[in-house]
Design goal:
- By secondary structure, this protein is an alpha/beta fold.
- It has seven helices and nine strands.
- Strand 5 and strand 6 form a beta hairpin.
- The protein starts with a helix and ends with a helix.
């Protein structure tokens, strides 16, 4: 038993400490723009996104899922690096283009090009097509397109762990037209938030 309240609080603080994910500064940046993972909402789910960005709805507490995802992320990235011969892999800081915000999982080099890694873990292959293609669920397509537009790179790899190895990798090239549509949607949602 723990009779010392101070010792108990230290244990709780350690047990509840974040194990990865966005920093406080990154959360603050996301509050001042639309994150890449929210880009699908900027087109197809504008009212709930507007409510969230104007703080009219309470934030969703999915921190346990985020912690799990961030705990698995390095394994997925390393397996992808081994399979694809990636090098110079690192986690960049927040990137912005207007009101578009991107928190990339990793940047890496493959041969002479730099590309984005957007690591995912899923329980099923629903919505995913053949490995090596851009056949990923729409929300992931919008997320990676937004990331490519903000970061200025032409390719995002989406390595996915479906419950157990191996990691399956999808190659999602930048789409300039879709990126423009996303940027317009983000700007429209933000304009309504300010006005």
């Amino acid at each position: 038993s723990y009779e010392d309240d101070e010792a108990l609080e230290k244990i709780r603080a350690t047990a509840l400490a974040p194990t990865g994910g966005l920093t406080e500064a990154q959360h603050a940046a996301r509050a001042e723009g639309v994150g890449a993972s929210e880009s699908w909402d900027a087109i197809f789910n504008q009212a709930p996104l507007w409510l969230a960005k104007t703080r009219r709805t309470p934030p969703v507490d999915d921190s346990a899922l985020f912690r799990l995802g961030h705990a698995i992320e390095p394994y997925i990235a390393n397996e992808t690096a081994l399979a694809r011969g990636l090098r110079d892999m690192f986690k960049p800081d927040t990137m912005r283009a207007g009101k578009m915000v991107a928190h990339l999982d990793y940047l890496a080099k493959e041969a002479e090009r730099t590309l984005i890694l957007e690591c995912k873990w899923r329980g099923t292959r629903d919505g995913f097509g053949e490995p090596g293609t851009a056949d990923v669920p729409q929300k992931i397509l919008f997320q990676t397109t937004s990331q490519c537009r903000v970061a200025g790179y032409e390719l995002a790899l989406v390595p996915v762990l479906f419950l157990r190895p191996p990691v399956v990798v999808y190659d999602v090239p930048s789409d300039v037209e879709l990126g423009g549509m996303i940027e317009e949607g983000v700007n429209r949602v933000w304009w309504h938030g300010e006005h």
